[in-house]
Amino acid sequence: MRHTLLFFWDGVGLGDDDPLVNPFATAELPHFTSLLGEKWYVRGRGTITTPRATLVPTDANLGLDGRPQSATGQATILTGRNVPAFVGEHFGPKPNDKVREALAQGTLFSEAVAKGGTAALLTPYPERYFAAIARGKSLYSAVPQAAVYAGLPLRTADDLRHGRALSPDFTGQGWRDHLGYADVPLLTTAEAGAQLATLAQSHTFSFFEHWPTDQLGHRGTIAEARTHLERVDEVLGGLLANWDETNGLLIITSDHGNLEEIGHRQHTRHPVPTILVGQNHAQLASHITDLTHIAAVVRQW
Fold first, then answer.
1. Going by DSSP bridges, is the β-strand pair 53-58/48-49 parallel, antiparallel, or unpaired?
2. What CATH number should be reported for the domain holding residue 279?
3. Which residues, 6+ apart, have CB-to-CB distance to 93 below 8 Å?
4. Beta strands of the chain (E only): which ranges?
5. Euclidean distance between the first and final Cα of the chain, in Å?
6. Has this prediction a pTM greater than 0.90?
7. Burial of residue 5, with CB atoms counted within 10 A of its CB: 0-12 exposed, 13-18 middle, 19 or more buried
8. Could you tell me the mean pLDDT of each successive run of 10 residues in the chain, 301 residues long?
9. Quick one: three-class SS letters along the chain?
10. How far is CA 291 from each of CA 10, 148, 221, 272, 275, rounded to the nearest angstrom?
11. What is the spatial distance between Cα 227 and Cα 26, in angstroms, rounded to a whole number?
């Protein structure tokens, strides 16, 4: 079965090769480097194509002034529409009525289901999250809102316990330390990557939402960001080692820059890296210029 995994790491752009502000410049990232070559994270290099992958710098500004925001950027990725233009501005972090309207009109989740396939948001949520939504104390962000509109159940702590979901921190340690789930199994980063590959093979379209990258861009130190990127690289190693490149398309992308320029705690207008792994990755990547084109590539695959 052909399948697509969209590995979404929030707030990751292509920045300058400056170790004082860009944690990519000093992080040890052997799996990314093996996949894409040296200095792949630097803006201004253009498209990078290797035997196994293509990276294409991707415009997240979409013709609007201001700094790109999460709700409109994520909605654009999932719909293929210029949602900031539809809304009239970059908006976030949570969707407003106009963003929800765009999501309700259809996303990659709903399209996969409508065509007889299956779709899943692989990131789980704790009980307190669902309770806050039910009480009206919190709102869905764009990605879970899109999944809900598609009629998909959001994954829970029970899914995490039984290997049907993957924690945003990869290993599950955060669920134990910060959420009180002492029975959540712990994974190594390599095991987490392998589990992502296995879960993706079960669905036509799956989406993994990794938000700690944006959180670190806003509030972390460059040392913390560097350490975290090295964990992401370890996960990528496990994912690539188990990826079915004949039938699977892996897309790694983001909604806006942030982590690549530590210090000002704001999003950037830098291009984001969209990385494709799978058959005909270069041909597919050639259709991508901005965030509106990612959905079209998924549909083509």
1. antiparallel
2. 3.40.720.10
3. 69, 70, 71, 141
4. 3-9, 48-49, 53-58, 119-121, 205-210, 248-253, 272-277
5. 11
6. yes
7. buried
8. 96 98 98 98 97 98 98 98 98 98 98 97 97 96 98 98 97 96 97 98 97 96 98 98 97 98 95 98 98 98 94
9. CCEEEEEEECCCCCECCCCCCCHHHCCCCHHHHHHHCCCCCECCCCCEECCCEEEEEEECCCCCCCCCCHHHHHHHHHHCCCHHHHHCCCCCCCCCHHHHHHHHCCCHHHHHHHCCCCEEECCECCHHHHHHHHHCCCCCCHHHHHHHHCCCCCECHHHHHCCCCCCCCCCCHHHHHHHCCCCCCCCCHHHHHHHHHHHHCCCCEEEEEECHHHHHHHHCCHHHHHHHHHHHHHHHHHHHHCCCCCCEEEEEECCCECCCCCCCCCCECCCEEEEEECCCHHHHHCCCCEHHHHHHHHHHC
10. 13, 22, 28, 9, 12
11. 10
What are the structure tokens assigned to 124, written together?
């789980």
CA distance 286 to 281: 9
Structure tokens at 123: 């990131």
Q: What is the pLDDT of residue 1?
A: 85
CA dist., res. 118 & res. 1, Å (int): 11
Q: Rounded to whole angstroms, how far apart are CA atoms 26 and 74?
A: 28
Looking at the structure of the chain, the number of domains it has is 1
Length of the chain: 301
Amino acid at 207: F
Structure-block tokens of residue 184: 């959540």
3-class DSSP state for residue 15? strand
Domain limits for position 56: 3-300
Which residues neighbour 30 within 8 Å (Cβ) at sequence distance 6 or greater? Answer: 233, 237
Q: Give the pLDDT of residue 135.
A: 95
